[in-house]
Write a structure and sequence with these properties.
By secondary structure, the chain is mainly beta. 11% of the residues lie in helices and 67% in strands. The chain is built from one helix and six strands, in the order αββββββ.
Length: 110
């Protein structure tokens, strides 16, 4: 019962505590493009990423004012698929779906 009471105390404390996570992702991907028209294309991306995470948890309910941790992953796989819609010959909208994120952005072609 000693282990269970510690687990229960920590589990109940987690609901009231503040947690902040900051992440920096640096992906390096291979991209395959498939053009349906001059305006519309889709693509797939796969590759590794370097990920730095900084975690800060305030835990006053278990007697610890600040629990900080950092993590550096040198290989985190990423997989994305997306589409591109060009408004002109050099400016367009890009939507990327996959792991670890969903993004919307602009593309500028030269």
């Amino acid at each position: 019962t000693g282990v269970l009471s510690v687990v229960n105390a920590q589990k109940s404390a987690d609901f009231d505590d503040d947690c902040d996570v900051d992440q920096v992702w640096v992906p390096v991907v291979f991209q395959w493009n498939f053009f349906f028209t001059r305006v519309v294309s889709v693509f797939g991306e796969v590759g590794p990423a370097i990920v730095y995470r900084s975690i800060s948890i305030d835990c006053p309910s278990i007697g610890d004012d600040d629990c900080d941790d950092t993590d550096l992953e040198l290989f985190e796989p990423v997989f994305w698929g997306g589409g591109r819609f060009l408004f002109s010959d050099s400016v367009g909208l890009v939507v990327r779906l996959g792991t670890p994120a969903v993004t919307v952005g602009a593309t500028f072609l030269m």
